[in-house]
Amino acid sequence: MRGLVKYARGPGNVAVREVPEPALSDGEVLVEIEATGICGSDLHILEDRIEIPIRVPVVMGHEFSGRIVDRGKDVSGLGVGDAVTAMPSVFICGACRFCRAGAHNLCMQRKSMGYWHHGSFAPRVSVPGRCVHRLPAGLGFRAAALAEPLACAVHAVTEMTGVSAGDLVAIVGPGSIGLLCLQVVTAEGGRAVVLGTAVDQRRLELARRLGAEVIVNVDDGDAVARVAELTEGYGADVVLECSGSPSGASLSLELVRKQGKLTQVGLFGGPISMDLGQVAVKEIRFTGSFGQRATSWRRALQLVARRAVDTGALITHDIPIDDWRRGFDLSARSEGIKVLLDVKER
């Protein structure tokens, strides 16, 4: 079978290549991929500027849905034919303080699908049964391919930040994660203001349709003043920085009110400079959010099951695997929101 492979470290070094069929170990299932999406971190892998361990050669991809076509020994509760998605943390130690607390995303030995373990940019992938989740009834494969980023949004909004009903939440960056965070915020009863640049106009209009109370093009005027108008001059109760850009991080510090909450969700791909003195003088509760946990997945799937979140609305393009570079370019230039790669065998 053919897959999209990061075959060596360094910028680039990605190509469609013949790859072996996944070996199925005890406790694993074999999933036939129905839909798989390009994540911002896949762009970072392409550029080789990511702080997550990578082992090459590796089939990329970790956002997916599909059907179980085989299973190894010692797999219970899952059967051939089940429609599923899966958590990408395919290896965790299970013994460190983070694993024992349920924070598998922070395991000291965590290895992830698409980085270390072969991922979903190929027709089939093997996954530990403990990582697998059945799809809620009525959820299509395309929309289900965004279950993983939705779980990241749940972790950021609900578990790490704690958005409360009535909070004015400024979301900086209307990419896939920002738009999913928007929907989780509104599901929690928050009021969302979504901010982006002129390049993001299509994404900002989608944010309005998905429930944003206000959208702000930061290139058109004073974004800080606009948020101040909405909050009697105080600033946002909560800011979710989802752009992963230095300018977005600096803006977030200006937007959040004194004693407000600021959560860094986007990944920068390298060190940046920002005025952390503002965290002290404004007494900001500043935290980060990375990946997702089992609890995030359960809540994410509940949200899509009761149609509180529309993941399918984010899908803008379907690209054949041989045209993968165009799909990556669409994502990098913000011309696509969620781009799916077609990896099926013909």
Compile the SSE list and pairings:
Elements: E1 2-6, E2 14-18, E3 28-37, H1 40-47, E4 58-59, E5 63-71, E6 83-86, H2 97-100, E7 124-128, E8 132-134, H3 141-144, H4 147-161, E9 168-172, H5 176-187, E10 191-196, H6 201-209, E11 214-217, H7 223-230, E12 236-241, H8 246-255, E13 256-264, H9 277-281, E14 285-288, H10 294-305, E15 315-320, H11 324-332, E16 338-342
Parallel strand pairs: 9-10, 9-12, 10-11, 12-13, 13-14, 15-16
Antiparallel strand pairs: 1-2, 1-4, 3-5, 3-7, 3-16, 5-6, 6-8
Helix pairs in contact: 4-5, 4-10
Q: How would you describe this structure to a colleague?
A:
This protein is of the alpha/beta class and 346 residues long. The chain folds into two domains: 2-146 and 311-342, Medium-chain alcohol dehydrogenases, catalytic domain (Quinone Oxidoreductase, Chain A, domain 1); 151-288, Rossmann fold. Helices cover 28% and strands 25% of the residues. It has eleven helices and 16 strands. The chain has helices at 40-47, 97-100, 141-144, 147-161, 176-187, 201-209, 223-230, 246-255, 277-281, 294-305, 324-332, and strands at 2-6, 14-18, 28-37, 58-59, 63-71, 83-86, 124-128, 132-134, 168-172, 191-196, 214-217, 236-241, 256-264, 285-288, 315-320, 338-342. The strands form three sheets. Strands 3, 5, 6, 7, 8, 15 and 16 form a seven-stranded mixed sheet that branches. Strands 11-10-9-12-13-14 form a six-stranded parallel sheet, sandwiched between helices. The chain is globular and about 60 Å long.
